[in-house]
Amino acid sequence: MSRLSVVLPAYNEELMVGKTCRVLHEVLAEAGISYELVLVDDGSKDHTWEEILKAGGKDSNILGVHFSRNFGKEAAVFAGMAQATGEVVAVMDCDLQHPAETLIEMYRKWEEGYEVIEGIKKSRGNESFLHKKCAGFFYGIMSKATKVDMQNTSDFKMMDRKVVNSILSLPERNMFFRATSSWVGYKTAYVEFEVHEREGGESKWSAWSLIKYAFTNIVAFTTAPLQFVSFGGGICFVCSLVMIIYSLIQYFRGHAIEGYTTTILLLLLIGSAIMLSLGVIGYYLAKIYEEVKRRPRYIVSQIIHGNKDVTGSVRDDA
């Protein structure tokens, strides 16, 4: 039987690592699926790595990857995929909000010949109204960029080995995994799931970190913000043209143009638009600078397989 690799990025998940490994072992073993669990410690500040070591001592199917520092969830996902050895690879959260039982349904879809099996949320759970609207706006932009409907998509997905190899072969350093797995194409199926409540620990995503994450991934995957800059510039040009025509008409009619306050407001509006545009352009330049430096996506300090240290066999796709 083909082996399934499950990639589990973990950041400050000491309360969940042990239980997640036990649940996945029970579910996959009962289904008769050969597996390996690839847990990537993204530079956690708690005892996540120690818990991974304990889990590895109990289950030889566990592969633990320890980053030298925090590089972010995207880097952890790509590191896990680079170390995975299975013919099919799944990615899911380490907090069990992605139900382990859904892996069985995904695996059966893969056996039917599908190469990418996307996990689709039936609902967005207990998220606030503002969070849902912001998420809808973000995924609306990403859907237009990828030409694929990304509403209610997640990082919970399963991919054939050739899909994983295609993603890892892409040269850029700043990649958005959720969109990239859709962009590469291949025969795709969709599986719905209910988001479970977190059983331990706290969410690592604050409102600011979500905004930063969204903007970073939009810039990494699409030029839409630059198009917004052009659109804003066009609006300012049209408004300026209207003001010029109005001013000339008033001048030839012999009326002086009044409105010092209006002039100041227009200058402030145009100045703000220019500074905002320069900020967006500067962000793109910063990302280009990061790509040109060619630094690796992540640095691995240690790898364990079961209870053995196999750091020397690290495979770095970067």
From TrEMBL:
InterPro entries: Glyco_trans_2-like (IPR001173), Glycosyltransferase_2 (IPR050256), Nucleotide-diphossugar_trans (IPR029044). Residues 5-166 form the Glycosyltransferase 2-like domain. Its main location: membrane. It is found in: Membrane. It comes from the Bacteria. The chain crosses the membrane at residues 228-252, 264-286. The keyword Glycosyltransferase applies. It is a multi-pass membrane protein. CDD domains: DPM1_like_bac (cd04187). The keyword Amino-acid biosynthesis does not apply. This is Glycosyltransferase family 2 protein. It comes from Blautia intestinalis.
